């Protein structure tokens, strides 16, 4: 793996693209009632998931939506272990290395418990991307882009994201493949990734109340960023080419600015 983001000399952890910032509490993905779970164990030798998955697991997992009640502290800690294990496995071997049984063992939860938080590998990796974006957002708030215009700031922000992805190519590929494979059942989780990306772009723009045309420009920028990420990961585009594409599409921000539209 290139980049060695897990180098302890720099205070980073493996599997974290945008580190050096505490993780914000996440309450938007998968919630469970706070009750004792007989399948939730702390002994890694008892967490191999050899028991058959209960029939109700899939149903309960479907409750993990943004309008669900917040996780308890214990549940949140468990969820964070799962996401960390997912990111570590993906960093080491990409999409194929993220096996639900391995994630359960690494995070020390039973396989049935894991499926109640994340019904599938795709759900898990999309949630991992949302978690990575949250870390990036926190980093950007501590050290915002310095461009003179909104377009320059957004382009700088997205290129910082690309440089981070360069350091963890296996993790990046796993997350993007999950987004590509996501079907309708993963729509709420994919929407969270989109909303987080939108929030990052709007913060870079310095806008709190964007108009319809500006929001449309943001959507086009998101589509271009995602497409450029896919072509780069597949080896069909260089970082230099990606930079040109990102800077080009970000010009839409200035073109849709209210003061620009009111000029004769």
UniProtKB/TrEMBL annotation:
<feature type="domain" description="HTH tetR-type">
    <location>
        <begin position="76"/>
        <end position="136"/>
    </location>
</feature>
<dbReference type="InterPro" id="IPR050109">
    <property type="entry name" value="HTH-type_TetR-like_transc_reg"/>
</dbReference>
<dbReference type="GO" id="GO:0003700">
    <property type="term" value="F:DNA-binding transcription factor activity"/>
</dbReference>
<dbReference type="Pfam" id="PF00440">
    <property type="entry name" value="TetR_N"/>
</dbReference>
<keyword id="KW-0238">DNA-binding</keyword>
<feature type="compositionally biased region" description="Basic and acidic residues">
    <location>
        <begin position="33"/>
        <end position="49"/>
    </location>
</feature>
<dbReference type="GO" id="GO:0000976">
    <property type="term" value="F:transcription cis-regulatory region binding"/>
</dbReference>
<feature type="DNA-binding region" description="H-T-H motif">
    <location>
        <begin position="99"/>
        <end position="118"/>
    </location>
</feature>
<dbReference type="InterPro" id="IPR001647">
    <property type="entry name" value="HTH_TetR"/>
</dbReference>
<dbReference type="InterPro" id="IPR009057">
    <property type="entry name" value="Homeodomain-like_sf"/>
</dbReference>
<dbReference type="InterPro" id="IPR041642">
    <property type="entry name" value="KstR_C"/>
</dbReference>
<dbReference type="Pfam" id="PF17925">
    <property type="entry name" value="TetR_C_20"/>
</dbReference>
<protein>
    <submittedName>
        <fullName>Putative tetR-family regulatory protein</fullName>
    </submittedName>
</protein>
<feature type="region of interest" description="Disordered">
    <location>
        <begin position="1"/>
        <end position="52"/>
    </location>
</feature>
